[in-house]
Amino acid sequence: MKSSSLTPALPLLATGAVLTLGAATPALAASVTVTIPQVKVAEYHRPYVAGWIEPAAGGDARTVFLWYDVKKRGNEPGTKWLADLRTWWRKGGRGLKLPADGLSGATRAPGTYTIPIPSNLPKGQYVFKIEAARETGGRELVSVPFVVPARGASAAGHTELGAVTIR
Amino acid sequence: MSFRTLLLAGALSCALATPALAHRQWLLPSTSTLASTGEYVTIDAAISNDLFYPDHFAIDPAQVSVWAPDGTSAQIENPAKGRYRGTFDVAVNKAGTWKIGMERSAIMGTFKVDGQEWRVGGRGRPAGGPGMAPGVGMPSGPAPANAANGAGPGSGQPPRMVASVADIPANATDVALTETLSRNFVYVTAGEPTKPALTGKGLEFDPVTHPDSLVQNEDGRFRFLIDGKPAAGVKITVVPGGKKYREAEEAQELTTGADGTVAVKWPVAGWYWLNASAQDTKPSDKRASTRRMAFTTTLEVVAP
Questions:
Q1: CB contact under 8 A, A43 and B56
Q2: Fold of A12-166
Q3: Which residues from A are below 8 Å from B248, CB to CB?
Q4: Cα separation of B254 and B271, whole Å?
Q5: Is the pLDDT of residue A55 over 80?
Q6: The complex's ipTM?
């Protein structure tokens, strides 16, 4: 939580005031940018990654994206390891029917990806959570508190995830 | 004790056919230490990525041998092979340290006959019908019957295969063979620990700290031997169990020193998986050029 920061573009108070008063201003489409870091290991597998939104005060999680081995079938289908995203799984992943349109996709190579945040979120305070779990590797959860309408916010992982930025 | 050359069938063939390197073979005893000789130890045997979660492949207990502290062989009891885990019991009815586990050796590689590449043993399955033995189809036999032998769809593997070195014909050229020796033993002690006998062959575990005397706040010192001599430069991987409850693997990658020993620190008490591997150019079979050796054990480290 402490690692989150407001965007430096505007002074803190001014930002709040402008956005609160300027409610009529059409909200720009918000997005989250996620970095999957390069990991130098002998045996690398792309991580499973889930991103979801929770109200800051608690409540239902809303999955925004899920990257896993969608195509793997047979004895050990790609869905077998979804529970390794252990926080996401308990926050509602286990109730999701997969593959889910607009949410699930194939695993991603190391790099930076931008995903739109649903535009129909009611105003309020939220936490964007991103969890990554890698076969034969580690697992990491990054939380980024943010508000709707979106101001900038960011946090960073240390091992399995890089910077996570909302803008 | 003799090496049992096992055809790479069933569990192991499937495990090896999967390219994922970290599929780990493990034996997990219910305890490493027993107070009396009237007890049993029950052991799980599986192959999986994460230790010690049986979620991938069971090891068939039929592969397991048991050596009592006096070096005599003993039997396993109540063997069962489940979907993900094999399990068996050993009646620990003599005082001292029992050695329980398996070893296998194989020779794998390739050769050419008339410019066509053939594979010896190992990965991949012959595409023969159910009536055919593994590796059926001799290079000297009628070509059409062999043409598709072992060719999995899109496997990219050489389409020709023989089961063992003995099947390599005299006119073979470009023979490139690797001998693999792998051992996986666990040590269970009733009463006072004793030292299991060594064979003087291949890569062996010659513990300085007895494997059933490990304590979290003391380094474990282990010596590794190759053909009975201290082996420097053996790569050691030590992984604590219980990965599900941590964020990372927390594996230690170590190397034996000039005296063949390595000192292992234990971040927490619990079960650890230890794997040692080495390679040299002294295979037992003259036609092989390389020898790859691995030793695996599971160690219980108690809290101080």
A1: no
A2: Immunoglobulin-like (2.60.40)
A3: 137-139, 159
A4: 18
A5: yes
A6: 0.72
